[in-house]
Write a structure and sequence with these properties.
six-stranded antiparallel β-sheet, three-stranded mixed β-sheet, 9 helices, 27% helix
Length: 273
């Protein structure tokens, strides 16, 4: 199968990653899932790791709240994606993706056409330079995907350098009791959200719609009081994307642009219309 990489630079795919945390029980969970885990080692930042089709949903989680990669030792990294092979002379640098934007949504829904990506959390990454016989070339300061930028409000990240710096500061910050990612969520939010939605059977607590196993992304976890750090079960609500998009004016605006709008449209076509 061949892929056409001659696309406009504004539509390039990319990835950016940065370490989040290590979970004590995560290795047991991964082993139960059939993933072979090596001996525990010191935490190391990941850079330029090839993404395989079987990684999606297992070692690579792509969500509205960010992109997360689980390494061989069970460490969980908040990361970005970028194109593995690129025409650097013709198009400049590949863009990084930091969330489930419109471009990533298209990638996830195109079964059997997995493009070549790498995942990383460092500013400096390696790219196969298609303009120079696929020579491994080190590049840095990769620009942020425009679709990702449209989804992120008050986003201070413009490139891979910003991503690494902000995540590094968040990981070492002593100014807060809770470790937060750059969206303001606690760093194990993705696990908390998934556990809560699982408990609710991936059924919307407002309209009662239930989604199939492969559509779990359409069911989301809402903070009732708007405080992303308040993860008490009483403050959480399992909502389909349609109900979540209509919670208030802020949510209505957030779901009217970028990848959120595309995802909402897909949900409406499949479950509502």
């Amino acid at each position: 199968m061949s892929f056409d990489f001659n696309i406009d630079a504004d539509e390039e795919w990319g990835f950016d990653t940065s370490p989040i945390c290590s979970f004590s029980k995560l290795k047991e969970r991964l082993t139960a899932m059939g993933i072979e885990i090596g001996k525990a080692e010191a935490y190391k930042k990941i850079s330029s790791v090839d993404v395989l089709p079987e990684d999606i949903g297992e070692r690579l989680v792509i969500d509205d709240d960010g992109i997360f990669y689980i390494d061989d030792t069970g460490n969980k990294h908040q990361a970005f994606l970028y194109k593995r092979r690129y025409r650097l002379a013709a198009y400049g640098k590949p863009r990084i993706h930091i969330c489930r934007c419109q471009t990533i949504m298209a990638f996830m829904s195109s079964s059997g056409t997995i493009p070549e990506y790498r995942v990383a959390e460092t500013d400096s990454v390696k790219v196969l330079n298609w303009d120079n016989n696929n020579e491994e070339t080190e590049v840095s300061n990769l620009p942020l995907c425009k679709h990702c930028a449209n989804m992120m409000f008050d986003n201070k990240i413009q490139n891979s350098k910003d991503f690494e710096e902000i995540l590094s500061r968040a990981a070492t910050s002593e100014s807060t009791e809770l470790e937060l990612d750059y969206y303001g969520y606690v760093k194990d939010w993705e696990e908390i959200s998934r556990a809560y939605r699982t408990k609710k059977g991936f059924t919307c607590e407002r309209c009662g719609i239930h989604v199939e196993d492969f559509d779990h992304a359409f069911m989301q976890t809402h903070h009732k009081n708007g405080d992303k750090k308040d993860n008490r079960e009483g403050n959480l609500e399992c909502l389909c994307i349609c109900c979540h998009a209509d919670v208030d004016d802020v949510h209505r605006h957030n779901f009217s642009i970028g990848g959120n709008r595309v995802m909402l449209q897909h949900f409406m076509e499949k479950y509502i219309l």
